Amino acid sequence: MADEPKEQQPPAGPAGEKPAAPSPAQPAEKAPAAKPPVPGAPGGAAPPKPAVPPPPKAPPIGPAPLDNDLVHRFKVKFGEAIREALEDRKQAILVVDYRRLAEIAHYARDKEKYDFLADLTAVDWPKREKRFDIVLNLYSFKHNARLRIKAQAAAEDQVPSVAGVWPTANWLEREAYDMFGIVFAGHPNLTRILLPEEWQGFPLRKDYDILKQDEAWVKENLGIDSGQ
Questions:
Q1: CATH number assigned to the domain covering 64-158
Q2: Global pTM?
């Protein structure tokens, strides 16, 4: 029987070493995947960033002119007695002729439903001809709205009382009389409410020294000399 041919062995390397086995083929390096183009951008480039809008303008500081339906109704009713209409921090302000204050107050309560007088006070501007601002802060429960009515008066002017419109004005007008010397015509009992009736001067007038006291009253009624 003929001998079968033997498997051919690779020739031995130098010094009888066996040749190294061939290494497996390395996979080819993959190219990075291309990013899909951005729709609407030319050539697939990223769209430009939108422009940043400028910051909103700050609201004006202080009162600004007001012209709305409320102001229109007051002007139709009272004409030039509505001297000015303003808005300050979303609150309507009407500057009115002091001589018609009681009429305007009645209308504000009965027709516009400002049924609550939250406060009545005054501000003294001694260098102004009409030195006093009489300020009424009103509130409407029906409309959940506020209205400020201001009237300018000189020291000798008699301002119509609104105690017959809002009873709370009774004591508030007495306080304004006590502190500023403002006379409210038609008030049922315009007497001092904080200071003694015989006290001289009006402490919240700006020409009344903050340290000043009625020294004669203090000595007569308290039996001491004023410490001021």
A1: 3.30.460.80
A2: 0.71
